C-alpha cells in the first residue's frame, strides 16, 4: 500500500505527546504476551536478542538495534538473557503511518516527503548510544511548561531523524569485549574521582589499544564518553532536585564548577543556572 499524499498532509503537525520513557527489561523465558501497541513506539537496544515479532513477522535479532512502530502494531518481544534497552511511548499525531508490510512512513515535516523505513533495523553501537541518550534526555525534561513540551518534541524529532538516516549498507561488527568491559568500568565509576588511566589496569590489553577499541566501538574517546555520562546525570539532577550548580558539579565528578558549566552549555545549549531557574517550580527537595 502506498503512502497517502492527500492535502490534509500539508497541515502543520501537532507537537508529539510523550507518554512514557523507560528502561526495557528481559523476559526470562521469552513469554511476553503479544499485543497491539496503544501508542507509537521507539525502542533502542545496545544489548538484546535473539527474537522479536512485529505484525506476525518473526525477526532473528541481535543488538545493537532499534524498533520504530506506529500505534496498532502487533508487538511481541521475545528477547531473553541480558537486555540493555530504552523505549519511548508517544502519540506522534501523524508523524508515523503504516506503509508497505514491515515498514513505517515517517512524516516529521509537512514540507518534506515521507521517509519509509523498516520497523526494525540494525544500527551501529554509536548510533544506539546516541539514540538512548536522546530518549533519556526526553525523560529528564519536565512537561509542566510549554518550553519543556517543545524541547521534548524537538528531541523526539531528532531521534526519529537519526533512526531514518542510519545507513542501510555495511555490516556492523561485534563490540570487542575489552571495549565493552571498559565501558562497563566507566559506567561503574563515572561519578568518582577515579582516573580512567586506573581503569585500564582491569583490562587484558594496553591502555592505547583499549582507547582505540573503545573509540572504534562507540564513536568517542573514553574520556569524552565519561563526560557525556556525567553531564547527562547532572541534567537529571538539575531538573529534579534543589542542588545548586556547584553541588551538582561535585556530585557527578567535576572538581571545577566553572568548567562544568562550560561543558554543560556546549552539550545542551543552556547553562546549568538557566536550567535551575526554568524548573524551579517543579523540582523536589
Provide tags for this entry.
single chain, 285 residues, alpha+beta, Jelly Rolls, Arc Repressor Mutant, subunit A, 2 domains
Structure write-up:
- The chain is α+β, with helices and mostly antiparallel strands.
- The protein has two domains: 7-124, Jelly Rolls (Sandwich), CATH 2.60.120; 177-278, Arc Repressor Mutant, subunit A (Orthogonal Bundle).
- The protein has nine helices and twelve strands.
- It has helices at residues 125-140, 146-164, 177-189, 196-199, 207-218, 222-240, 245-251, 257-268, 272-278, and strands at 17-23, 35-36, 40-47, 51-54, 57-60, 65-69, 74-77, 84-91, 96-98, 103-106, 115-118, 120-122.
- Strands 1-8-3-6-12 form a five-stranded antiparallel sheet, covered by helices on one side.
- A hairpin with an 8-residue loop joins strand 10 and strand 11 (115-118).
- It is globular, with a radius of gyration of 20 Å.
- The chain starts with 16 loop residues before the first strand and ends in a 7-residue tail after the last helix.
Amino acid at each position: 500500500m502506498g503512502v497517502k499524499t492527500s492535502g490534509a498532509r500539508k497541515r502543520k503537525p501537532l507537537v508529539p505527546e510523550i507518554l512514557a520513557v523507560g528502561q526495557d527489561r528481559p523476559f526470562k523465558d521469552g513469554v511476553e504476551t503479544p499485543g497491539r501497541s496503544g501508542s507509537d513506539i521507539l525502542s533502542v537496544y545496545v544489548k538484546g536478542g535473539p527474537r522479536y515479532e512485529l505484525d506476525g513477522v518473526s525477526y532473528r535479532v541481535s543488538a545493537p538495534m532499534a524498533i520504530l512502530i506506529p500505534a496498532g502494531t502487533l508487538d511481541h518481544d521475545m528477547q531473553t538473557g541480558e537486555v540493555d534497552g530504552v523505549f519511548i511511548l508517544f502519540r506522534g499525531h501523524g508523524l508515523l503511518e503504516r506503509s508497505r508490510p514491515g515498514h513505517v512512513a515517517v512524516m516529521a515535516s509537512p514540507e518534506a516527503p515521507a521517509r519509509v523505513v523498516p520497523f526494525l533495523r540494525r544500527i551501529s553501537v554509536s548510533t544506539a548510544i546516541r539514540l538512548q541518550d536522546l530518549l533519556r534526555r526526553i525523560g529528564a525534561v519536565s512537561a509542566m511548561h510549554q518550553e519543556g513540551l517543545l524541547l521534548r518534541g524537538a528531541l523526539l524529532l531528532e531521534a526519529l531523524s537519526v533512526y531514518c538516516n542510519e545507513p542501510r549498507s555495511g555490516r556492523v561488527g561485534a563490540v570487542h569485549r575489552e571495549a565493552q568491559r571498559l565501558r562497563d568500568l566507566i559506567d561503574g565509576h563515572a561519578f568518582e574521582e577515579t582516573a580512567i588511566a586506573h581503569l585500564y589496569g582491569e583490562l587484558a590489553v594496553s591502555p592505547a589499544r583499549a582507547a582505540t577499541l573503545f573509540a572504534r566501538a562507540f564513536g568517542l574517546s573514553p574520556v569524552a564518553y565519561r563526560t557525556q555520562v556525567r553531564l547527562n546525570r547532572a541534567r537529571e539532577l538539575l531538573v529534579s532536585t534543589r542542588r545548586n550548580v556547584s553541588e551538582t558539579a561535585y556530585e557527578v565528578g567535576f572538581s571545577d564548577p566553572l568548567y562544568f558549566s562550560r561543558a554543560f552549555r556546549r552539550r545542551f545549549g543552556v547553562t546549568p543556572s538557566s536550567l535551575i531557574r526554568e524548573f524551579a517550580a517543579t523540582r523536589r527537595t
